[in-house]
TrEMBL record, chain A:
GO terms for biological process: protein transport to vacuole involved in ubiquitin-dependent protein catabolic process via the multivesicular body sorting pathway. Its main location: cytoplasm. The keyword Transcription regulation does not apply. Component of the endosomal sorting complex required for transport II (ESCRT-II). Component of the ESCRT-II complex (endosomal sorting complex required for transport II), which is required for multivesicular body (MVB) formation and sorting of endosomal cargo proteins into MVBs. It is found in: Cytoplasm; Endosome. InterPro entries: GLUE_dom, PH-like_dom_sf, Snf8/Vps36, Vps36, WH-like_DNA-bd_sf, WH_DNA-bd_sf. Pfam families: EAP30 (PF04157), Vps36_ESCRT-II (PF11605). GO terms for molecular function: phosphatidylinositol-3-phosphate binding; ubiquitin binding. PROSITE patterns: GLUE. This is Vacuolar protein-sorting-associated protein 36. It comes from Prunus persica (Peach).
TrEMBL record, chain B:
GO terms for cellular component: ESCRT II complex. Belongs to the VPS25 family. This is ESCRT-II complex subunit VPS25. It comes from Prunus persica. Keywords: Protein transport, Transport.
């Protein structure tokens, strides 16, 4: 096949498209073919997932091979044909056609200033609301969100702290969600309110501009963090080091700019949600040692989504779908019923190794360890620490001691004791180490 | 090393998890094995035949040095393990009292036969009480034997024709005539 005339679209490891800075997903259609008879080098795009964003049309193959995802910038579209109603169309798969400008050598450009025009046909083989998709395509195309990004980038460089208008898409652009969505909704409300209410909204306006500054600040922090991680930490001043944790917390507040919603994804909702979740959890997982309680994830995820909250059932379903995708995280259910999300690379052996070191310290040999002792040493939540201890117990590494003093764990000595001579203690091994520690106390 | 009277306790008696019934199968099996051995060993040396499950004074079931004691559930689990091995028997349906057989009934019967042989008691008559506490049995394992255990061993021998049991006026003066 000749060179791909479309742009390649970048995908995350879990198969979600990597969006541009202010790009938002608007709609999804599954089982879609893209055809173009005018171009000989148009790629063979059969039965994939078509995602409409404010900036682009993205075509993803069903099986996520990152190399073959394609993108068409909306800027390159010169005309969208309205759907033809005819007897014939009742029997064929629904189709949608638009005109695309390409350069003389048949490549799609960003600007839409190509010299040739070709017609691309979208064939919807699966179930999907073509009219709704067409409407959204029109909205996105007319919204010209990509131009606003360019403007804003320009103004930001010039002014440093941007004015209140540059951040938001103007009227007619598609809806935004997440933290930025809240801000924009407030802005619209403000603009449409009668002048007489202006005084009442004075405070809100002030809050909004503060919030906007916070978002920008967090974004700046993120840039700083990214650059900071590569540079040498040696000469950094104390203040900067001390605020690193703070910066990471702020970073979390930036939120997900384009959360997957039932409205945008439709039947693909859970699948897409699942992929987005897989991308989202990577950072919090890293910070909490590779494993997190499902409830914590639920809180963090919804906080990041801002307004488009999901239900616990949706979260569980999204996690359950991970088995079917090639994502680096997994859902794990402990024997106690506690569910956690963990990195696939997370190994119990490593945790067991640390628990073993902990329980063989002289104090722990004598008095055992509690879940909170383990939590402090392992740097994880006590509830999670207890799950690890119970797992280590079930593997025979530990055994329990329940007394009025509480529930404690000891290193398991039972396998070390000679069943034929219960008085014998080998000179080496954990049993004799325990004995020395126990004798030292009393 | 801790001691209970003249009984030497093993080192793991001071290991707190030893007193908590372990939930993990492999660990629990080993724990039960160690408890069975300890109980039999202790009963044999101390001549204890019956253990009452709720007896707070039974010294094995608690360790004041580490402030640990077995729960009712754990006591019953360990004694039941002895029962299923044939080394103990519940004396009541509610599992309150347990008869410990560090020698099985058959072994006790053999000990009686040995005792008869050594003392030349063939064709002579003894009361049951004389076997338990008479001068002939002093210094042997039969001295102070539990009456229930002794009667079961004697009945086993009677079935085999090694002796005859005849009733007296009270339970105390049941007599035994050993066969030649």
């Amino acid at each position: 096949m000749a060179r791909n005339c479309l742009q390649a679209a970048e995908l995350t490891t879990s198969g979600r498209p990597v969006l541009l800075p202010t790009e938002i997903e608007c709609s999804l259609l599954s089982a879609v073919d893209l055809e173009c008879e005018d171009l000989p080098n148009f790629p063979h795009l059969k039965s994939g997932l078509l995602i409409l964003t404010t900036h682009r049309l993205l075509w993803l193959p069903e099986s996520t091979a990152a190399s073959s995802a394609s993108a068409i910038p909306l800027a390159a579209i010169t005309h969208i044909f309205s759907a033809k109603k005819s007897i014939k169309s009742m029997f064929a798969s629904p189709r949608l056609r638009f005109q695309l400008s390409v350069s003389p050598d048949g490549r799609v450009s960003d600007s839409g200033s190509g010299s040739r025009s070709v017609v691309v046909t979208v064939v919807i083989r699966g179930k999907g609301d073509l009219d709704a998709f067409l409407n959204k395509l029109w909205d996105s195309w007319r919204g010209r969100a990509w131009e606003i990004v360019h403007e804003q980038a320009g103004s930001d460089v010039a002014s440093g702290s941007g004015s209140s208008s540059g951040m938001y898409t103007r009227e007619g652009a598609v809806r935004m969600v997440g933290v930025s969505g809240i801000l924009r909704k407030e802005q619209e409300m403000w603009e449409s309110t009668d002048k007489s209410l202006q005084d009442a909204f004075q405070d809100l306006n002030a809050l909004m501009s503060k919030a906007k500054e916070m978002v920008m600040l967090a974004e700046k922090m993120r840039q700083k963090l990214l650059s900071g991680s590569t540079s040498q930490p040696s000469a950094e001043n104390d203040e900067e080091l001390g605020s690193k944790q703070e910066m990471q917390d702020w970073l979390l507040s930036v939120g997900i700019i384009s959360p997957v919603t039932k409205e945008s994804a439709g039947a693909m909702y859970h699948q897409q949600l699942s992929r987005q979740l897989a991308d989202f959890v990577r950072l919090p997982l890293e910070r909490s040692g590779g494993m997190m309680n499902l409830i914590d994830i639920y809180c963090l995820f919804n906080r990041a989504r801002g307004t488009e909250l999901i239900s616990p059932e949706d979260l569980l379903q999204a996690c359950s779908l991970w088995e079917k995708f090639d994502v680096p995280v997994m859902l794990r259910k402990f024997d106690s019923g506690v569910m956690v999300i963990q990195n696939k690379s997370h190994s119990d052996e490593e945790v067991f190794g640390r628990i073993k070191t902990l329980v063989t310290k002289p104090d722990a040999l004598r008095t055992g360890i509690s879940a909170s002792d383990a939590a402090i040493t392992l740097g994880i939540a006590p509830g999670m620490a207890k799950e690890h201890l119970l797992t280590a117990e079930s593997k025979g590494l530990l055994c329990r001691d329940i007394s009025p003093d509480g529930f404690r764990f000891y290193v398991n000595l039972f396998p070390e004791i000679d069943p034929n001579d219960m008085f014998s203690v080998k000179d080496y091994g954990i049993y004799s180490t325990w004995l020395r520690a126990a004798c030292a106390s009393g | 090393m801790q001691k209970l009277g003249d009984f030497k306790l093993p080192q793991f008696f001071n290991y707190p998890p030893y007193f908590t019934l372990q939930p993990v199968r492999d660990t629990r099996e080993k724990q039960i094995q160690l408890w069975k051995d300890l109980i039999l060993d202790y009963c044999k040396t101390q001549n204890v035949f019956v253990i009452a499950v709720e007896d707070q004074d039974f010294p094995l079931f608690s360790n004041p040095a580490i402030e640990r004691s077995l729960t009712h559930e754990a006591r019953e689990a360990f004694l039941s393990a002895l029962v299923s091995q044939g080394r103990a028997e519940w004396l009541d349906k509610n599992h309150r009292k347990c008869l410990i057989l560090w020698h099985r009934i058959q072994e006790w019967a053999n000990i009686i036969l040995e005792f008869v042989k050594e003392n030349g008691l063939e064709n002579s008559v003894m009361t049951v009480e004389e076997i338990r506490s008479g001068p002939e049995s002093r210094g042997t394992e039969l001295h102070g034997i539990d009456r229930t255990v002794l009667m079961r061993a004697l009945k086993l021998l009677e079935q085999k024709g090694k002796l005859a049991i005849f009733k007296g006026t009270t339970a105390d003066d049941e007599g035994v005539k050993f066969s030649a």
